[in-house]
Design a protein that fits this description.
With about 475 residues, this protein is mainly beta. Helices cover about 5% and strands about 60% of the residues. It has helices at about 1-15, 100-105, and strands spanning about 20-30, 35-45, 50-60, 75-85, 90-95, 95-100, 120-125, 135-140, 145, 150-160, 165-180, 185-200, 215-230, 230-245, 245-260, 270-280, 295-305, 310-320, 325-335, 345-355, 365-375, 375-385, 400-410, 410-420, 425-435, 440-450, 455-465. The strands form 2 sheets. The protein has a 24-stranded antiparallel β-barrel. The chain has a two-stranded antiparallel sheet with strand order 6-7. It starts with a helix and ends with a strand.
């Protein structure tokens, strides 16, 4: 009802004031799971845009009265005011963070941070319904000012607050200039402070790894710097945390990328990436978590040829201090030239990866994939194998393989996937999507056949999208 009423008000306002408008209505429904709906609308005039975001998630049994009762689902309201020219914005709602605050919220998430994966600091309204607390966020960014000798400079400042629980400040500046040979260089620096109140912790048992701690204050002082030069990119983060009853901790990361512009005498295009990150056990991240001490790093090489042909290989390591374990991952990928066709057959990409796991908890795994195209059908074949795992948990090894197919019959798209796993059985899915410029409708059905004779598990999903 809230989404329908908002749509009516939005339409009337746009027609009365002749504003530039955009409206997105999107949703999904999964059998025996949940349904989600989102309305995202904006009104813009003279470079100033106002935005309204409503999202809702609740159990999929919409025919039952309890589904619509208060507390049965999650609803969210987001409001935004944007300045198109500078990127400045004021936001209210649940937020997604990017850049330095996001890296300090979970320093060792995902893969190693290569130089090219460092994102600029900014926040945006969270699109999905979430139990995340409502926040207020302001980003104030200046335009680029031109100084004598063609020097350009800009600055920005941000503030984000979760009311009584957390408040953070972020400010920085960027500078673009040329050296004596006319080569453009880009330099940036950023400072970040967060002050938060952490909830009390209670031990869950006699031998619990959780330390019982009262409610306490935690502060983070961090910074980020980067330098761009033709053929060279350097990115670096650093932070210190101070937490009552826990002490002081530190985190640091550095990533460097070299490419062929730095060495024009080499007759091919290439990129070389180096990265190293370290954290100690007493560092408390922006989410209030600690005990993730360790070191990780990596090396990646890319060999770039004509027609998108690429060779890429990388190796990463992660040493976890609390487990005293070392994990190593390596990947190798070859992307075929875009003009290679054997009749209707076009190979796209082939790759191989290895994950050593850790002696304490994780299995070692070797996996491979092969993507190819037989117009209008695109296909991905994959396989992975993990040997038996000798540890206190007595994990067994596994093998899995499968393929994914996508048939492009614009505006109709068909997808089919099937896979076999020695633990989970056989999975099969079939999907259909119909896309038009202003709307999309899709459906997908899947089934899992366990190997031990239990009844199959079926799944049905519907999704829709309307853009106005």
């Amino acid at each position: 009802m809230r989404i329908l009423l908002s749509f009516i008000i939005f339409t009337l306002a746009a027609s009365l004031f002749a504003l530039d408008t955009s409206l997105l209505m999107q949703g999904s429904w999964a059998w025996d799971k949940k349904m989600e709906n989102r309305l995202d609308g904006s009104l813009e005039m003279s470079g100033i845009k106002g935005r309204l975001l409503l999202n809702d998630a609740r159990p999929s049994a919409f025919w039952e009265k309890t589904t619509w009762e208060s507390g049965a689902g999650q609803s969210g309201l987001g409001l935004g005011l944007y300045h198109r020219g500078s990127g400045s914005r004021l936001l209210y709602g649940a937020l997604n963070n990017a850049g330095l605050p996001a890296r300090l919220a979970n320093p060792f998430s995902g893969n190693v941070h290569w130089a090219s994966s460092y994102k600029a600091t900014e926040s945006e309204l969270k699109k999905e319904a979430s139990r995340k607390e409502t926040e207020i966020y302001g980003l104030f960014s200046s335009p680029w000012w031109t100084l004598p000798q063609d020097i350009k400079i800009m600055g920005f400042a941000q503030i984000q607050t979760e009311f009584e629980q957390r408040i953070s400040y972020d400010a920085g500046s960027e500078l673009i200039f040329s050296d004596a040979k006319g080569r453009r260089q880009h330099l940036g620096i950023e400072f970040f402070n967060q002050f938060s109140t952490l909830e009390a912790l209670k031990a869950t048992g006699w031998f619990s790894k959780t330390y019982p701690l009262p409610q306490r204050r935690s502060n983070i002082y961090g910074g980020h710097a980067f330098y761009l030069f033709p053929g060279l990119e350097i990115q670096a983060d650093g932070a210190i945390s101070e937490t009552e009853f826990w002490g002081r901790g530190c985190f640091g990361s550095t990533a460097v990328e070299f490419n062929s512009k730095l060495a024009p005498f080499i007759p091919w295009n290439w990129k070389l990436h180096l990265a190293i990150e370290g954290i100690n056990d007493h560092f408390t991240d922006a989410k209030g978590k600690s005990g993730k001490g360790g070191i990780r790093g990596g090396l990646k090489y890319e060999h770039l040829l004509k027609k998108s042909e690429t060779y890429r290989a990388d190796i990463q390591f992660h040493w976890k201090a609390n487990e005293d374990s070392l994990k190593i991952k390596t990947n190798a990928v070859y992307r075929f030239p875009s003009n290679v066709y054997l009749g209707l057959f076009h190979p796209v990409q082939i790759g191989l990866s290895y994950d050593s796991g850790t002696e304490a908890k994780e299995q070692s795994t070797i996996a491979g994939h092969f993507n190819f195209l037989i117009k209008p059908l695109s296909t991905k074949l994959y396989a992975a194998y993990a040997p038996a795992f000798e540890s206190p948990s007595s994990e067994k090894g596994f093998f899995k393989t499968g393929c994914n197919l996508k048939l492009n019959l614009k505006p109709l798209y068909l997808t089919f996937g099937t896979g076999y796993h020695t633990k989970d059985g056989v999975d099969t899915s079939l999907g259909i999507t119909y896309k038009k410029p202003h709307w999309t409708l899709g459906a997908k059905a899947g089934c899992n056949w366990p190997l031990e004779g239990t009844t199959p598990k079926w799944s049905v999903n519907l999704n829709w999208r309307v853009v106005m």
